[in-house]
DNA sequence: GGCCGGTAATACGTGTTGCCTATCATAGTC
DNA sequence: GACTATGATAGGCAACACGTATTACCGGCC
């Protein structure tokens, strides 16, 4: 096996074509260098240098191997530098599972700032529902996940990023839509008899449960007429008059849809305002230094605020 | 400094993610491997592996460095293979100084066969006059030289490749041209009073001297009307009627020029036929294994024959 | 809950090897 | 012909890579 020590020694000898000077540059004695080069040539199986008593010259194979020696050490040095930058958290890749980020201005701003601050870091964004995010996190497929509250295994850490109000989405021609026009909160209990459209429970059990609980607190169990995985699809169903929907405020910020109006919900007596959290989660044993950096930036950007409308 | 031993050890540990199995694959004991990896990490300056008592995993920087380790060893292995092929004379580069090869069919055939037999060898052909070839050979700029006979320093080896007749090139309307038409040799002495065109002495002193000596033997000193470096130019001058010229037979084989006819020379009494040699020369201390190969092929192709007309 | 199997780290001894100093051999130089 | 420059060889030493023995610790299992 050819050690890099031998490569370094060979390079200097090839550059100097003089064992004494080369040995001096290597801070070693000439005999040791002669031995090292002899060992190198024995391992290579061919003569890399021709030595007369007066001069040293490279053979053609030696010239070819010199290129290899340079290339090998360059590859190694560059790779060490790169790996050090990865270890220092200024290079590498951060894979992020997210919900649709359309309405989350502070998160988008964080991503932009992160990319600007760490141009050597590749950001890999993958949009998926909360339940799938958790699977990906546990499986190590992603480094961080931006998702709804969910029951988490102990290895998953979580921090709240922001909260946002829950709004009621109504078809424009719905009787309750006049409240929306006047920007007045509506009482959820007034919609006990309405048809509802919901996202499937399996995609985000926590989210689903929270919306259901909200209805229970308002005194009814929603009559679910139809489910749709995507919020945009859900609002399309609302627009078509199939029912009303409870949605996070972020979707109202990013999507103005003809035929749909959004109403704030009047607070229920004895209960705080209905709001949804967006959390950032990560695997406790994931050693990427980028995770902490990303979360720190995210928190300083959002300061756990409620997303404004 | 990171030795390749450490790279190999790290690669196996990263592949196995298990110190015992990795040590077995490396034919060593586990503690030594633990120490080796610890030393690697100390030199790298970052942790490449996270070890719990139960499991081993790569850090992101470790993953990055693993790529580097593979790339480094690949570069080295490929380079060693390449250099070995260079040493074995099946790869590399052979730089050849030549006269114009147009008429030298056996040499061209050798080049073709060489290229076919050794596709990994780059042939670098450089056309230049004999005197310049010798300089290039001594300076190490070329590996072999195909040139006229010349006084050579002791470090230059030489072998004859082939010989070719010296012909007299005449303008078609020259009184002597009728001999050419009947394919009869002409006596050089008959042209004692003719004007001659010659190549400059400096480009090929041996060649020049040989032609002059031929005229002397025929009893005259040629009246040199004009010089031209290129044989094609020289023959152009002949065609225009400026004079006659002594040229190697190869040029007659490769160049048919309106207004010029070539005549064989009648042997002079007591002298062998007038002929020129094409020699292959190389530097005695040039260690390229391709030189011997090339010369062997050249000789087996030509067998020192006289170039046929 | 204590025991056992599995795993990596630590302690310490040893053989290899990379390097040192001293010397030799040889070729070119004054 | 002695001298100088240069690389190779010889012999010794110390660093280090590796081995054996042991420890430390975690999980699963009876």
Provide the β-strand percentage band of chain A.
15-25%
The stretches of 5 or more residues of chain A where confidence is low (pLDDT under 50) are none
Q: What is the chains' assembly state?
A: homodimer
CATH superfamily placement of the largest domain in chain A: Periplasmic binding protein-like II
Which term fits the overall shape of chain A?
Answer: rod-shaped
Amino-to-carboxy terminus distance of chain A: 66 Å
SSE pattern of chain A, N- to C-terminal: HHHEEHEHEHEEHEHEHEHEEH
According to CATH, what is the class of the largest domain in chain A? Alpha Beta
User: What is the strand tally of chain A?
Assistant: 11
Q: What is the number of domains of chain A?
A: 3
Largest sheet of chain A: 7 strands, mixed
Q: Enumerate how many helices of chain A there are, as a single number.
A: 11
Specify the helix fraction band of chain A: 40-55%
CATH architecture of the largest domain in chain A: 3-Layer(aba) Sandwich
Task: Tell me the Rg of chain A in angstroms.
Answer: 32 Å
Mean pLDDT of chain A: 92
SS-based structural class of chain A?
alpha/beta
CATH topology description of the largest domain in chain A: D-Maltodextrin-Binding Protein, domain 2
Q: What are its keywords?
A:
homodimer; 309 residues; alpha/beta; Arc Repressor Mutant, subunit A; D-Maltodextrin-Binding Protein, domain 2; 3 domains; seven-stranded mixed beta sheet; two-stranded antiparallel sheet; 11 helices; 11 strands; DNA-binding
